[in-house]
Amino acid sequence: MKTWQKIILGLAATGTLALIGIVVALKILFPPDRIKEIAVSKLEESLGREVKLAKASIGLGGVTLNDLEISEIPNFKAGTVASLKSLSVALEWKPLIFEKDIRVTNLSIDAIDVNVIVKKEEKAVKKEGPAPTSKSKSAETPQFLLAKLSISNGKVAYRDETTGTSASLSNLNFKSSEITPSKPFPLEVSADFNYGKTKGSIDFSGTIDPQKGDLEKAGAIIDSLDLVWDGMKYAMSGELKPAAAPAGDLTVTLPAMEAGGLNIPMLKGTLHAKYKDELISITKMNLKGDGASLNGSVFQTKSGWKLKKLTADLEGIAATLDGLYSEKEIDLRVQSGELNLEAAHRWVPALKEAAATGMASIDVTAKGKTQSPALTGDVTLNDASLTSSGQVLSKLNGELSFTPKKIDAALKGALNAAPFDVKGAVSDYRGNHPKVSLNGTLTKLDLSKLPESKKGHAKAGTKGEPTGEKEAALKMLADAEGTITIGAITHPRFQASKSTMKWDLKNIGSDLSKLDGVVAFNVGAGKFDDLKQLGASNPMVKMVLLPIMIIQKVAGLVKVPAFPSFDKVQFSEIVGDYVVTKGIMTVKKSHLASNVADVNMTGKADLGKDKLDLRVNAKIAKVGLKAPVAFKVTGTMADPKVKLDVKAILKQPEVKQATDMLKKEGEKLLRGLFGR
């Protein structure tokens, strides 16, 4: 063996013996029970809580504590606030062996589990007095160097019993190195979280500049901050300082999202953010995406948000928002000079669904309760069109004007290609009892294109009383009045010439027993056949033609020779005049002048209970009966009951003449039989 090889072997053997000696010395100086005693004592002293430790050991790698538990204040009877599987501490050996002074260099924690509960009786009390100066903070911060700090697979749970707020972190990983209070050090943190019903994750990488604990100087450089919130990913980078009120220029990425009926693409750009007094301010916002941009400022207030010239530009469709917004109150102005409705299809699905085209301008301020704000301003339509419930509104020109108590509208256009000119208003539109007025003309109404009534409406609430929006809908009442003149009415089963309709109804709602008002109409000459299908498809038509539909239903039940079936009728007019009081409709006048009969109807119909009590007089054409045939109709619309008025039949001249003749012949027969 060569000399240099012997030297190396000797040094290796000496080093090995030295290491063995150090380990032995450590075991002698710090046996496991001694390490446990020191660790538990130090932790209890600093935390003011009870501590349990299952196992402790020491070696060249440092001190390791296993299965550590920390109590709530003051002891474990109050619960366990934290536990961990293992805690490993690397130490400086020279101070430890010769001075028995513990100096930590590396700290590693595995599977820490922290449970924080804020009980109802625990209230945070702010102590009055001057805040410590940055100099005093700096002077009080001890010097140390932690070469490495890591936390793996951690958990943190938080619950506030007073507010019900709950949050948790899982898969918490924390890594840093060269930690000192006087120099910047790197930091990496990642975790999954639950906040109420929201799930997500956070991943941070950057540098912390502690500035010896001086919050007026300390800050952070964010290399990357990725936040996943309910499946949507946000990203941020930049610098924030000082820690006392973090502010700085940031580069951000916002995910594509749907908000307020708008499709917003992914946006990237810069902004200046500041966090002070627990409030966020965002200024100099300049974000851009696929055909879109967002500029302006947003300031958080104690109750919500203040928007200042927040402008969204979506491929030339610009809208500006100014004002205040919160969950409860709103004071917000929306302005859009020229809104191309067709170009907005990409951003507003509702406009695409309605096949909207043309131009619009908006200048509206919403103020009051967020769910039902008062509106002030104007919306102008210029050659606009849209489709709703199968109805095509085209060539719309006009204006809608809003005040806190009323909406006025003056519109010209076409309904299903038929020109119209209407003026209308809705007052008290924010409450549960709006009042609607409508007056105008329509050149033609095609009944076959009107939306059909929906059958089988779901009852509000499956059990018990209805709740939420369904309950509000049931409580909603409305008043309506107006006049409409229609040039012609068409349908495969009904045609009429110029017609007018007037109405003034109160308490329109789901409970027809509350309905009051009047309805009158005059339908010009035309023709109809089986109206059952027409009435079933539209409730408005059903109400107007109610007496005529009843006649058709009972025609087959009337046992009078030559009584018409009313299946094919040409008429010169249909006139109606109804009065409704608490859901009871009184038919003051209902007249059908036709080629088969001249029909008049009077009586009542209980709309809420669907009960009929009507009297029909039908003077049949081209039949020998000169007086009207009368009968009474009871039952329901679906199942009417007919009772012929026998006295009215007997009063017919032809019937009376036949009866008198039979009476005379009978008298002659009796005289002959008895010889008188």
Can you walk through the features of this model?
The structure is a single chain. The radius of gyration is 43 Å and the shape is elongated. It is α+β, with helices and mostly antiparallel strands and about 675 residues long. Helix content is about 20%, strand content about 50%. The N terminus is likely disordered.
Short description:
The protein has eleven helices and 39 strands. With 676 residues, it is an alpha+beta fold. The strands form three sheets. It has a 35-stranded mixed sheet that branches.
β-strand percent reads: over 45%
User: Globular, elongated, flat, extended or rod-shaped: what is the shape?
Assistant: elongated
- Calculate the terminal CA-CA distance, rounded to whole Å: 174 Å
Computed over alpha carbons, the radius of gyration is 43 Å
Query: What is the arithmetic mean of pLDDT?
Result: 80
Low-confidence stretches: 2-26, 125-139, 455-464
Give the topology, please:
Layout lengths: L2 H27 L2 H16 L3 E9 L2 E10 L8 E12 L1 H7 L4 E7 L2 E6 L15 H7 L5 E15 L5 E14 L5 E11 L2 E12 L9 E11 L2 E9 L6 E8 L2 E3 L2 E3 L2 E10 L2 E11 L2 E9 L4 E10 L2 E9 L3 E12 L8 H5 L3 E13 L4 E15 L2 E12 L3 E10 L2 E10 L7 E8 L2 E2 L21 H8 L2 E9 L2 E2 L3 E3 L2 E10 L7 E8 L2 E3 L3 H6 L1 H6 L1 H10 L13 E13 L2 E11 L2 E10 L4 E10 L8 E7 L4 E5 L1 H5 L2 H22 L2
Parallel strand pairs: 4-6, 5-6, 26-28, 27-29
Antiparallel strand pairs: 1-2, 2-3, 3-4, 3-5, 6-7, 7-8, 8-9, 9-10, 10-11, 11-12, 12-15, 13-14, 15-16, 16-17, 17-18, 18-19, 19-20, 20-21, 21-22, 22-23, 23-24, 24-25, 25-26, 28-31, 30-33, 31-32, 32-34, 33-34, 34-35, 35-36, 36-37, 37-38, 38-39
